[in-house]
Design a protein that fits this description.
109 residues; alpha+beta
Amino acid sequence: MPQVTVALFAADRAPIAAFHVVQGVYLSIHPANVDALPSRPGQRLRFFTGFAGWAPNQLQRELKLDAWFVLPVTEEILFRADTSGLWKELFEKARGSRAENKNGDRLRS
């Protein structure tokens, strides 16, 4: 869906038709949410154009296959002003987390 605008934004309470991401942060494609955001001064937000979805159970299968890097999220990462180098930084952090097994034991240094 390349024509859809997706908004990631901070809000004091859950808006209608939005997905909860982390405390106080939501994701929405609903026009009532997306259209209202630019008029809020100081609003912490990001806009993205387009998205792809998954077939039923596809993401769960991919996670079981260890095909995704999964890291904890923070509002600082989501709304970081300088995103240069962000993907590399997160990739390195994820690679390091994969070096631990499920018990937290280091598999390699």
